[in-house]
Design brief:
5 helices, binds magnesium ion, globular, about 30% helix
Length: about 160
């Protein structure tokens, strides 16, 4: 058994051309909003934290080392590709996802309408039942950058078990 922790934050700006923000995607779900992440890839803060939790559980290099921000191949990249590579490594080491617990912190928009879709996508990417995936949405009570709607953050803990 192994445990991994992942964390990520992205700055939110008005969506281009008004600002430098990309369309908001969280946990693989496109979410209508007037602000989005400033990022080299698609800026999916949830999947980035998932990837770092998976890689961390294996003791392997982190997302920034594997998928460099300087690599033009990752410009606007679909972050599900990063999850797929992390899961390839998980399987290669003989593990499967026991369960994963995800906390997403953002002031707006409300995540409650999107959590079910995120859960379905993440379970599919991880090759596990949806019952093994939990997603919690929180606000930042109006304080600091996240509370002011200028950033979005995700924390993830993943538990790996020997592949059945
Ligand atoms: Mg990131």
């Amino acid at each position: 058994m192994r445990v991994g922790h992942g964390y990520d934050l992205h700055r939110l700006e008005p969506i281009a051309p008004a600002g430098a923000g990309r369309p908001l995607i969280l946990g693989g779900v496109k979410i209508p909003h007037d602000r989005g992440p400033v990022a080299h890839s698609d800026g999916d803060v949830v999947l980035h934290a998932v990837v770092d939790a998976l890689l961390g559980s294996l003791g392997e290099p982190d997302i920034g080392e594997l998928f460099s921000n300087d690599d033009p191949r990752h410009d606007g990249a679909d972050s599900s590709l990063f999850v797929s590579e992390a899961m390839r490594r998980v399987r290669a080491r003989g593990y499967a996802v026991g369960n994963i617990d995800i906390t997403v912190i953002c002031e707006r928009p409300r995540l409650s309408d999107h959590k079910a879709a995120m859960r379905t996508i993440i379970a599919r990417l991880l090759g596990c039942e949806e019952s093994r995936v939990n997603i919690k949405g929180k606000t930042h009570e109006g304080v600091d950058a996240i509370g002011e709607g200028r950033a979005v953050e995700a924390h993830v803990v993943v538990f790996l078990i020997s592949a059945p």
